[in-house]
Write a structure and sequence with these properties.
Elements lengths: L6 H12 L4 H14 L3 E2 L11 E7 L2 E7 L9 E7 L4 E12 L2 E9 L12 E10 L5 E13 L27 E4 L6 H9 L7 E10 L4 E3 L5 E4 L2 H17 L9 E7 L16 H12 L4 H9 L2 E5 L2 E2 L22 E4 L9 H14 L4 E4 L11 H8 L2 E6 L1 E3 L6 E4 L2 H13 L3
Parallel strand pairs: 1-2, 4-13, 4-14, 14-18, 15-19, 16-17
Antiparallel strand pairs: 2-3, 3-13, 5-6, 6-9, 7-8, 7-10, 11-12, 12-20, 16-18, 19-20
Helix pairs in contact: 2-4, 4-9, 5-6, 7-9
Amino acid sequence: MTPVPHRSHTDDLLSFIRASPSPYHAVASAAQRLEKAGFRELRGTDDWTGTTGGSFVVRGGALIAWYAPEGTPSHTPFRIIGTHTDSPNLRIKPSPDTGSAGWRQIAVEIYGGVPLNTWLDRDLGISGRLALRGPGSRTDSRLVQIDEPLLRVPQLAIHLDRSVNDGLALDRQRHITPVWSLGVAEEGALLRRVAAAAEAEPDEVLGWDLMLHDIQPPGYLGAEREFLVSSRLDNLVSVHAGVTALAGAATAAGEPAYIPVLAAFDHEEVGSGSDTGAQSPLLERVLSRSVTARGGSQEDWSRALAGAFCVSADMAHAVHPNYAERHDPDHRPLPNGGPTIKVNANQRYATDSTGIAMFASACERAGAPWQPFVSNNAMPCGTSIGPLTAARLGVQTVDVGVPGLSMHSARELCGADDPGYLAAILGAFVASD
């Protein structure tokens, strides 16, 4: 731990990442922090009538949280921080037990845009959730996290593939199967292992959402420890910053001019097309219901949306020193220069001039720097939840993000100060002017 400015925030981010190897763990970690700040969980089947203060709703790997103190007018506009909890990885198939040539292996499926070479020769654990048989017709969900070096995707020796440095000679379906033991594939072996880790019996497990994660802990890098290296920086940096900003907003005194909201969606890396993704009606329904619960009408809901604004916070690209020609020559963000404002004329990002002004103003109030980002015209541009949220709710949106290298890698890099900058800016954004 180091007393450098913003490093206390980054130290706390390291703890958050360690506790969040899957989207479900990220939500549990966020919920725990919000509860310590006085927020309480609301379930969809609960009666929300009269609910005020800090509240959050959990659905699988997604979390929607907001703060509306008693007496807040029901038409009060929202200030939304949009993030996502998922990261590209390898996910375990429903029938996982397989093997070849005397090795026991686990069948996995590629989730999202995975640079497969970054997953080779890494010590991998297992995390996710189990769906367990409950009383009667009910089912229960239980998290599982095995931070042990259980599996590995071994790379072929260079003596057996001299072309390995010419490109990734890897068949996506066949050669990514991790090994985890010797012997004949034994049906139910993995199930028994993860059930034991979750303190459940194998016959209680009816289904799962399990994935692999690199067990190497996050940490600092560089001559001055100026970089942060970790799995899942995309997008736990933004989730953690959003939680920090929302918890801080809950301590503000007086009647708020805005209702701060954190929307942490799942499945962004595969298009957000699920009941927990940004394309779903989840955020819309939760916010609409929160207005109704405070006695608001349809007119109040429309007014709250009309005055709303969203900051979509996702990771961004820093200029790569070995591939500078892949970046726009006039927009080359660097780590520790502050978050970027991401612009794309074709609306792959939802930013426009009003969004730039809104975020730049929050940066000024927070005393934090920012950098512009535009993709090279010759390269395809990524996207995030910003355009989806803007289209779904019809609210003004700006796309921003901490710049980093090795995006989607099993181990990513960003500036050690930038997560703290982002949290401070988001705190200024949701605070009443």
